[in-house]
Amino acid sequence: MNPHLLTHDTADDYVAGMSRVTRLVAQHLGAGAPSTGATVADLAPVVDAVDLDRPAADLDTALAEVTDVYLRDAIWFHHPSYVAHLNCPVALPAVLAEGIIAAVNTSVDTWDQSAGGTLVEQRLVRWTAGRIGFDEDAADGVFTSGGTQSNLQGLLLARGEAVRAAGTDVQHRLRVLATEHSHFSVIKSARIMGLHPSAVIPVPTDATGGMSLDALRHELESIRERGEVAMAVVATAGTTDLGVIDPISGIADLAEEHGAWLHVDAAYGGGLLLSLRRRHLLEGVERADSMTVDFHKTFFQPVSSSALIVRDGATLAHVTHHADYLNPRTAVTPNQVDKSLQTTRRFDALKLWMTLRVTGADAVGEMFDEVIDRAHQVWEVLLDDERFEVAAEPVLSTVLMRYRPEGVSAQDADSLNPRIRHALLDRGDVMVAGTVIDGRAWLKFTLLNPQTPLAHLRGILETIAATGDQLLAEDAMDELRLPFETLAARAPQGTGAGVAR
Ligand SMILES: *Cc1c(COP(=O)(O)O)cnc(C)c1O
């Protein structure tokens, strides 16, 4: 019996081992802070010291090592003081599904490697399509590793359609339209696809931060006049910073008029598909040609879980290749590899399936609604707090603020706020994000934990203020010190030099 492979012979070791690792993780779930503030300098030597050419003495030793190199200093997204990036606490049924997925090790590329796995994924794709408002019989899609890959595939399909309509020599004249707040994966995709270096045209935004329809119309007309081809318009449903949702219906009208593919990047806002109170914010998505939904953001799924859903399943043929050894043209069984950029692929769909079957779609939607409620509450608190500046009213669950007490200039606030953020990161007890909008530095809360009470978030604001005050006090001390040091430097050797510090 080989003790290192999961087979019937090692089933008892498997049960015992899983119980050990789940207990280990459970111990760390109670961490008092989202981070220990460990630095690269702290951790790199610990990781480098491990001799990978020789195994550890036993499982216990290996797990102790994992704790040292990773677990103890992991970043905990479920912690109420983690309000940084778009990372969610995870649905417990989905984590349990991970246990099944890893152990069975299904690959959903072909039917003969997955059986029911393929059908479960297809059913969830149809379900998501139904939520979008697509005709479920015509629509299709596939699970992907994330929004980045979903966006890439959406744009690949758009190119496929553009080339089919206009011929292969159009490649260098293809253009993609998106606002400057669209995700960077749009530009990256264009680069990967070998489009013209300036293929992605930034469409100006209006006062709401969403795509300006007048500007889009103007850009589309200019493209036509220059003899270029508008391959796709990317509408973002939930920008990463402000959560802004582009005016999808109006964009759909213009895209249709100009024969451009409409891709909706709902990596962030996709959770609204399950919202009982805010589904209307996604109005118009049923007119998209393709849509990105990141389940690992607002559906509370463990990384990775995302999908690209298309209105017309036939367009997925642009990524199909038939290999005799895998998915021959004559295959009679459903093979998801025909629709995917990946070949071997995790059965991530089971996580969403388990979540819908145990937690339920409405409860997931309500969790997203709750964090959006909380973002509004924090925004109102900030409106009343004169020490802070606050950006526009949140649309989804991000809130942008900057600490700028009386007497601090806008410019000084631009350097103070990133310093506050780094001071917090160094300590590890609070993690907030930072961003720059129109040249001004902001701090950002991204709220995805529905259990975090407003009082806790008020506490984080106080921590930000106290940290800011401390930094300002240190600056004032430095300024006081300056003339003293200047004097000391001028003094004859051996008298006051160096005393200042
Ligand atoms: C997060 C995000 C992406 C990228 O998704 P990944 O899953 O991180 O690859 C794309 N678009 C938007 C709007 C996002 O918020």
Task: Give structural attributes.
seven-stranded mixed β-sheet, 501 residues, 14 helices, Aspartate Aminotransferase, domain 2, five-stranded mixed β-sheet, alpha/beta, Aspartate Aminotransferase, domain 1, binds pyridoxal-5'-phosphate
Q: What portion of residues is helical?
A: 40-55%
Number of strands: 12
What is the string of helix and strand elements? HHHEHHEHEHEHEHEEHEHHEEHEEH
Q: What is the CATH C-level name of the largest domain? A: Alpha Beta
Q: Could you characterize what this model shows?
A:
The chain is globular. With 501 residues, it is an alpha/beta fold. Strand 9 and strand 10 form a beta hairpin. It is built from 14 helices and twelve strands. 42% of the residues lie in helices and 13% in strands. The chain folds into two domains: 107-359, 3-Layer(aba) Sandwich (Aspartate Aminotransferase, domain 2), CATH 3.40.640; 362-484, Aspartate Aminotransferase, domain 1. Strands 2-8-7-6-5-3-4 form a seven-stranded mixed beta sheet, with helices on both faces. The chain has a five-stranded mixed beta sheet with strand order 1-11-12-10-9. The structure holds pyridoxal-5'-phosphate. Residues 86, 146-148, 151, 183, 185, 236, 238, 240, 265, 267-268, 294, 306 line the site of pyridoxal-5'-phosphate.
In short:
By secondary structure, the protein is an alpha/beta fold.
Ordered list of secondary-structure elements with their pairings:
Blueprint: H1 11-29, H2 40-48, H3 59-69, E1 82-83, H4 92-104, H5 116-132, E2 140-144, H6 147-166, E3 174-179, H7 185-192, E4 200-203, H8 213-225, E5 229-236, H9 248-257, E6 261-266, E7 290-294, H10 295-298, E8 306-310, H11 349-358, H12 361-383, E9 388-390, E10 398-403, H13 410-427, E11 431-437, E12 440-446, H14 454-490
Parallel strand pairs: 1-11, 3-4, 3-5, 5-6, 6-7
Antiparallel strand pairs: 2-8, 7-8, 9-10, 10-12, 11-12
Bound molecules: pyridoxal-5'-phosphate.
Residues 86, 146-148, 151, 183, 185, 236, 238, 240, 265, 267-268, 294, 306 line the site of pyridoxal-5'-phosphate.
